[in-house]
Write a sequence for this structure.
């Protein structure tokens, strides 16, 4: 069972940057679309600004791939807006984020070995 | 106008239904939030932010739609990529084959698109270079002009400030990191070869620090070069360095003889540096010795100022600070500060302000052309979709899903648009070149115009977006029609045809309406240009040659010597064969140069502040210095009294000639002749001389044809005391034949009198006048071209729709002819449909034109934006063209052979 899962995850790689960033943004808790956009913006120091179309298209893809799912947990109703859906990482999503990180780290290691970067 | 929210809902339709259901409302809300956020940024940044948000939303929708066309949801996921790609390649191959099979269709469609997208790319590349790109400074948003105002109005005549005012801003305002004084400086460069005038600027030592640029070679000015009496040093412009010194870095060892003073070259400005005032100075010197605030009057407005806002200071805060300084001025110097003030403006806004409207109008115009071109192509595709409906139905019966077929059509349209886009780039390349050739040289920031990545992505973007939208429109009948029924009726799906016929009719109505808007707009500009060219400039520009003369510095030290020099020059020119009169003036009309001074009647008490408070007319007269035959040479008529004569020399009583406007202003209902007036000089070393008015001449348009004549006063050159007003003069020579032919002879004659003078601006007066209408002529030409293209495209559209209708009705026409219908009956039937479309299109177009030509108001001269003549002309032209477009297919209806059609049925 574990073996098939790993193969599944490998098949998903490489992840598109937008998908990867969304997965990373969700590692620390459930977020809704607007908060996701803000979190990605914050983590990339304002360099990656996901437009509305790209954001929801990415969410759709991640949900279809089973990497994230809609979350039932809601914050305090007073703070919450009912129209917003919250998303959370699935186990597969966590694995995929991890595997993609490994893959990128490998690349960086190779690049370092070739003394291209310090 | 579609309301914003509805427009967004339309955009959402790009997404497949399952996406809309699940994410639609949230995505829309997010889009609105994004747009709100973008709107908070500065003007252009917010525009770009909003456009990119919308593009992102559109593109993501398209991508979702394409994903949805892939194999069903069960297979979607890991293996999707390969098969989708495969399908796309298959579709592209299919599309290419069908293009080749129908060369006529392909050529018409591609030509429409190439024109539509190409004109857009060309104008967008201009807008991108001139309006959208920031100035090449370190922090362009912090570089501001400090512009003088009168009664809070910002006009070109009043932007000048007094030197002490700028010094006070530097000393007392905390809002600026640096403020530099800027003044034109026109030295003559002596050395090897002919002495040449070098258009340059005097600036403060901090000038280049404001822009945060680095010198290409050497250094910029040092702080000690701001002190009075420093060593004379210049910084060269990159272009001048290349042209004069071949880019030699050894230039730093050079000294230049400028007006007899040796300046050391200390540095070269970087290649991409642009002057924030839109001038193109060849060099800069730091603070000249005459910039001494203690010696300069507060009413001598001859300087400009540019500053850099201090860190963290906003434009509004800095403006408030400048307003505070002016309030202090009014308290401390009530005589010199009554209605003046200063306005801050970000450098780029000031630079492009004059052409912004024109470029945006042109951008709008080419946008309309593109819409028309797209409608045309969609129309062509619609026709084809219909004729292909049997094939489509067959493919559907063989198992192709409806989305698959729609996808194929959309691919085909998108591919056509992308190929069209590529052809368009070639058109745009030619277009930008011809734009420059057509006379766009006077645009500011022209060096920035070119086809770069922004322009390329723009072209690709509009090609794809338009392709998709109009591709879906072309696929519409397939979505709507009953494919099985189509197959049964042998390919002639009546319901689908009727619906698409309506859609096509709608497209044509839109085309006619848009083309009419463009035609009405170009009609208005054309009439405005014509009106402008009919304006009487107040002189007769035909057969006049002009040359500007600069005596060599250090020669002619006595005033009489200058008088004699110009007398000799004028006499020499007047004696040339074919010359009827020759004169000279210090500032030639329409060549720039202002000298507005306070002149007052001797028999009236000098105005007090209170007198001036209620007065809102002109506060100064343009002062011009002329030689006796100047009025005759320029064809300026003397309305009363007399012009100057040679007897009006230094020894004779001082006299003046005034313009009609001046007479009206100062002597309403009186005879000005014999009255005395005094010019109150702003420079202390000049005496205030009382002069007798001896004549009145007609008003002259001093700055351009569009700007009304300003009240002026003329002094005789021999009697003018200010050396600055009489040193550099422009000679005007009236000839019997073509004045251009006299140019060389005139130049040589001047050098025969004095071989050391510098001569420039040798040109005919007609070309001087024509230059002032170059910009309106340029935009009118462009709009006319776009109007013409629009007309052509609309004509093709109408002919296509009517032609298709005729071909569909061949059997009916055949039967009616067999039953005895006359030619007239057939004409009437066929044409009535076209006429209905045209009438609706015209109705829509006239209302659209009335609503939209208002944006042209600021570009029009002497014509209201709702000028009926222009509108009627546009409508008539449109009617004529559509009539031809309807008549051609209608004529073919008459060639229907009833026997043949009946047999076929």
């Amino acid at each position: 069972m574990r073996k098939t899962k790993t193969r599944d995850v490998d098949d998903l790689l490489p992840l598109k940057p937008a998908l990867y960033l969304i997965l990373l943004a969700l590692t620390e808790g459930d977020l809704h679309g607007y908060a996701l956009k803000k979190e990605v913006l914050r983590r990339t120091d304002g360099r990656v600004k996901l437009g509305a179309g790209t954001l929801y298209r990415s969410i759709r893809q991640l949900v279809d791939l089973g990497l994230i799912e809609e979350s039932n947990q809601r914050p305090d109703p007073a703070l919450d807006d009912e129209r917003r859906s919250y998303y959370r990482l699935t186990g597969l999503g966590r694995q995929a984020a991890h595997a993609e990180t490994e893959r990128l780290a490998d690349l960086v290691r190779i690049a370092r070995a070739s003394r291209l970067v310090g | 106008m579609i309301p914003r929210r509805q427009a967004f809902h339309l955009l959402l339709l790009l997404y497949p239904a399952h996406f809309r259901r699940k994410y639609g409302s949230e995505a829309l809300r997010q889009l609105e939030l994004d747009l709100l956020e973008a709107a908070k940024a500065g003007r252009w940044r917010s525009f770009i932010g909003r456009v990119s948000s919308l593009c992102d939303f559109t593109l993501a929708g398209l991508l979702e739609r394409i994903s949805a066309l892939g194999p069903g949801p069960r297979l979607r996921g890991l293996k999707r990529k390969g098969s989708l790609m495969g399908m796309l390649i298959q579709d592209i191959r299919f599309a290419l084959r069908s293009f080749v099979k129908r060369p006529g269709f392909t050529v018409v469609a591609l030509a429409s698109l190439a024109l539509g997208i190409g004109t857009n790319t060309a104008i967008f590349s201009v807008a991108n270079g001139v309006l959208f790109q920031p100035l090449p400074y370190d922090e362009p948003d912090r570089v501001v002009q400090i512009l003088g105002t009168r009664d809070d109005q910002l006009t070109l005549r009043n932007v000048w400030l007094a030197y002490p005012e700028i010094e006070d801003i530097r000393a007392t305002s905390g809002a600026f990191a640096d403020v530099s004084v800027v003044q034109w400086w026109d030295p003559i460069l002596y050395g090897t070869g002919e002495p040449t005038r070098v258009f340059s600027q005097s600036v403060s030592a901090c000038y280049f620090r404001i822009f945060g640029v680095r010198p290409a070679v050497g250094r910029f000015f040092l702080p000690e070069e701001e002190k009075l009496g420093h060593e004379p040093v210049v910084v060269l412009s990159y272009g001048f360095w290349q042209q004069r010194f071949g880019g030699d870095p050894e230039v730093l060892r050079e000294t230049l003889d400028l007006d007899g003073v040796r300046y050391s070259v200390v540095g070269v400005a970087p290649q991409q540096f642009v002057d924030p005032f839109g001038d193109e100075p060849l060099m800069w010197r730091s603070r000249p010795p005459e910039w001494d605030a203690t010696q300069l009057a507060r009413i001598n407005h001859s300087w400009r100022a540019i500053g850099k806002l201090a860190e963290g200071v906003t434009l509004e805060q800095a403006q408030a600070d400048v307003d505070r300084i002016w309030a202090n001025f009014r308290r401390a110097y009530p005589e010199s500060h009554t209605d003046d003030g200063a306005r801050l403006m970000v450098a780029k806004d000031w630079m492009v302000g004059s052409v912004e409207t024109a470029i945006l109008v042109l951008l709008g115009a080419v946008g309309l052309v593109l819409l028309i071109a797209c409608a045309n192509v969609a129309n062509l595709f619609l026709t084809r979709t219909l004729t292909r409906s049997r094939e489509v139905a067959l493919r559907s019966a063989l198992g192709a899903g409806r989305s698959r077929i729609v996808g194929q059509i959309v691919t085909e349209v998108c591919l056509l648009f992308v190929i069209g886009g590529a052809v368009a780039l070639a058109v745009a390349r030619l277009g930008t070149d011809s734009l420059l050739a057509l006379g766009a040289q006077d645009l500011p920031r022209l060096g920035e115009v070119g086809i770069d990545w922004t322009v390329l992505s723009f072209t690709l973007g509009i090609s794809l977006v338009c392709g998709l939208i109009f591709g879906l429109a072309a696929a519409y009948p397939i979505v709507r029609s009953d494919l099985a029924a189509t197959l049964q009726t042998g390919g002639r799906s009546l319901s689908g045809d009727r619906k698409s016929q309506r859609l096509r009719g709608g497209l044509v109505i839109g085309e006619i309406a848009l083309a009419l808007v463009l035609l009405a707009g170009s009609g208005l500009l054309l009439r405005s240009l014509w009106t402008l060219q009919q304006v009487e400039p107040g002189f007769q520009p035909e057969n006049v040659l002009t040359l500007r003369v600069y005596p060599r510095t250090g020669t002619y030290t006595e005033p009489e010597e200058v008088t004699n020099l110009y007398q000799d020059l004028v006499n020499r020119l007047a004696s040339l064969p074919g010359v009827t009169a020759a004169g000279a003036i210090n500032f030639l009309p329409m060549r720039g140069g202002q000298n507005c001074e306070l002149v007052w009647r001797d028999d009236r008490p000098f105005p007090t502040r209170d007198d001036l408070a209620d007065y809102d007319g002109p506060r100064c007269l343009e002062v011009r210095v002329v030689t006796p035959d100047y009025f005759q040479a320029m064809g300026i008529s003397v309305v009363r009294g007399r012009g100057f004569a040679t007897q009006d020399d230094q020894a004779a009583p001082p006299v003046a000639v005034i313009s009609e406007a001046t007479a009206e202003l100062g002597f309403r209902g009186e005879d000005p002749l014999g009255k005395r007036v005094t010019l109150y000089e702003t420079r202390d070393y000049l005496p205030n001389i009382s002069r007798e008015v001896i004549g009145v001449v007609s008003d002259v348009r001093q700055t351009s044809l569009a700007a009304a004549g300003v009240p002026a006063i003329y002094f005789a050159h021999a009697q003018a005391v200010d050396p600055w007003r009489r040193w550099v003069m422009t000679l005007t020579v009236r000839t019997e034949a073509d004045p251009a032919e006299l140019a060389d002879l005139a130049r040589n004659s001047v050098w025969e009198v004095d071989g050391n003078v510098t001569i420039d601006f040798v040109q005919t007066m007609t070309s001087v006048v024509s230059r002032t209408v170059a910009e309106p002529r340029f935009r009118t030409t462009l709009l006319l071209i776009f109007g013409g293209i629009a007309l052509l495209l609309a004509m093709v559209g109408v002919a296509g729709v009517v032609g298709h209708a005729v071909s569909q009705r061949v059997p009916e026409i055949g039967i009616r002819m067999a039953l005895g219908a006359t030619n007239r009956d057939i004409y009437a039937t066929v044409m009535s449909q076209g006429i209905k479309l045209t009438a609706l299109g015209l109705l829509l177009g006239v209302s659209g034109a009335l609503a939209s030509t208002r944006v042209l108001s600021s570009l029009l001269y002497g014509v209201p934006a709702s000028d009926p003549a222009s509108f009627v002309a546009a409508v008539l032209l449109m009617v004529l063209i559509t009539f031809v477009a309807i008549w051609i297919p209608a004529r073919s209806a008459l060639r229907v052979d009833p026997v043949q059609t009946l047999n076929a049925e």
Observations:
- Chain A is about 60% helix and 10% strand.
- The radius of gyration of chain A is 16 Å.
- Chain A touches chain B through 19 residues (CB under 8 Å).
